[in-house]
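Retro notes (design track)

What went well: tokenization of the new backbones is finally stable.
What didn't: we kept losing track of which sequence belonged to which structure.
Fix going forward: every design gets posted as structure first, then sequence, in one message. First example under the new rule, 304 residues:
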């Protein structure tokens, strides 16, 4: 049980960078970016092919991050300059990345067994924890700069920020690029941790990222940038722990993972609405009781 929980925390940290990337598009830009499923594999593919050919794992991670930046920028250009719907832009780029990833890898699967990775000499959980903390703090700092504030304002009210002279096309491209860079870096780390990169490793990653962000916000709140990014990281860990516990149920199989993910996301999305409805109902009952009490008091006063 302890080993499975430790593994879940480690996986949660590995996917935390992807959760931060999804947070940028989903919460800050309010952009439905499906590029994630392709760029995650892009990061793993670039890292795996470089490490397998003897390059430094650190250089491989940087190259994976750069590959994600390019993928996100292409999605942003399709949307802003090509005037293609945001959802469709992400789908088109995701489809294109499948062929690009196959070109990068040369085959559907690349093994990293027997080669040095970031996790060869140090504990994976320690390495990933340091990387996640560094990137989380850097993202927090960036979102408090003038450019970061413009990025946040673009998602809140693009028309208003354009009236102040900001270039919303540039900020949208920047946000999508940064988001997919983090996603690709997460893919690079996952490839090194699992010992292989596979052409299908990114399927469903957008749902996992959304689950992490939504669960994190529901449990830990998101009243500030620091708290929101922390919630995304912790949400990724909580999600992996929930999945690990669910898979320990005897009648559930490993093949049910996608179903479990979908159910978790549905619950996380529906629960806040149910809570608001119950709160409104309770407030309405309280208000009705107060009005009834006031009417009774007025009735008693009239009789006197």
């Amino acid at each position: 049980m302890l080993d499975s929980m430790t593994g879940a925390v480690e996986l949660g940290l590995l996917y935390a960078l992807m959760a931060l990337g999804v947070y940028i598009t989903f919460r800050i830009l309010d952009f439905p970016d499906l590029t994630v499923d392709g760029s995650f594999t892009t990061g793993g593919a670039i890292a795996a092919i470089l490490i397998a050919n003897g390059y430094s794992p650190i250089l491989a991670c940087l190259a994976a991050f750069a590959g994600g930046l390019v993928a996100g920028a292409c999605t942003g250009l399709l949307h802003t300059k090509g005037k293609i719907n945001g959802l469709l832009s992400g789908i088109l780029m995701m489809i294109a990345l499948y062929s690009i990833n196959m070109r990068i890898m040369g085959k559907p699967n690349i093994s990293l067994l027997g080669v040095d990775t970031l996790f060869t000499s140090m504990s994976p959980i320690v390495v990933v924890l340091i990387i996640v903390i560094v990137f989380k703090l850097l993202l927090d700092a960036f979102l408090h700069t003038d450019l970061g504030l413009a990025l946040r304002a673009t998602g809140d009210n693009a028309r208003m920020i354009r009236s102040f002279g900001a270039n919303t096309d540039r900020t949208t491209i920047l946000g999508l690029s940064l988001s997919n860079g983090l996603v690709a870096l997460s893919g690079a780390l996952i490839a090194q941790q699992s010992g292989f990169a596979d052409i299908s490793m990114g399927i469903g990653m957008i749902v996992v990222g959304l689950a992490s962000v939504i669960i994190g916000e529901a449990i830990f709140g998101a009243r500030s940038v620091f708290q929101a990014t922390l919630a995304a990281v912790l949400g990724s860990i909580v999600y992996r722990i929930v999945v690990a516990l669910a898979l320990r149920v005897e009648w559930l199989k490993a093949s049910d993972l996608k179903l479990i993910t979908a159910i978790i996301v549905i619950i996380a999305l529906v629960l806040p609405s149910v809570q608001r409805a119950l709160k409104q109902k309770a407030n309405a009952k309280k208000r009705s009781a107060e009005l009834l009490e006031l009417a009774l008091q007025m009735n008693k006063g009239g009789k006197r």
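Added context from the reviewer: Residues 247 and 255 are 10 Å apart (CA to CA).
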